[in-house]
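Q: For a teaching handout, I want to show students what a protein-ligand complex looks like in token form. Below are the inputs, and the small molecule is zinc ion. Please produce the holo structure.
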Amino acid sequence: MLLTARTRYPSEKVNKKGMPYEKYAAYRNLIPIELGQRGEGIAPTAVSLLWRDRKEIMALVGSKCKKCGTPQYPAQRVCVACGSQDMEPYSFADKTGKVFSYTEDHLAASMSPPAIYGIIEFDGGGRFWFDVADCEAGELRVEMPVKMAFRRKYADAERGIYGYFWKAIPEVT
Ligand SMILES: [Zn+2]
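A: Here is the structure, written as tokens, with zinc ion included.
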């Protein structure tokens, strides 16, 4: 059976960590997975852009206005709140936040459908959209606390490039 992006993993059999064996096998490239039209082809990683914006991408560094204190991501040269051009680097990687809004996308290409993503509002200010990981369909709620984690975003097996970015992880208490 060829799994599709819209197919939830059907097996009741799970491994030690509670992951269905089909999902485990797909993650390990042991069985083929059909990601559908939206999963075809991965654009080559723009290495020059990755280098230029390495702090924003790899370290989740945005900017904070020195005049009014508004944190912003991506980094801005001009404050969105007061128009000041006096900005300083501001890291979001170690900040916690809350789910502002989210969606579960059953048509998006995902190794673990549905793809879950949403807007995260950081404690201390700043909003941006992120994929949500370590979360199953129906579990996420608005206002749920999250922390940030640097996770794999895609695997470009043809070129041997693995892309990473920050994802929001719900903190279940
Ligand atoms: Zn400002």
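A: Two things your students might notice: Residues 65, 67-68, 70, 79, 81-82, 84 surround zinc ion (CB under 6 Å). The chain is about 10% helix and 35% strand.
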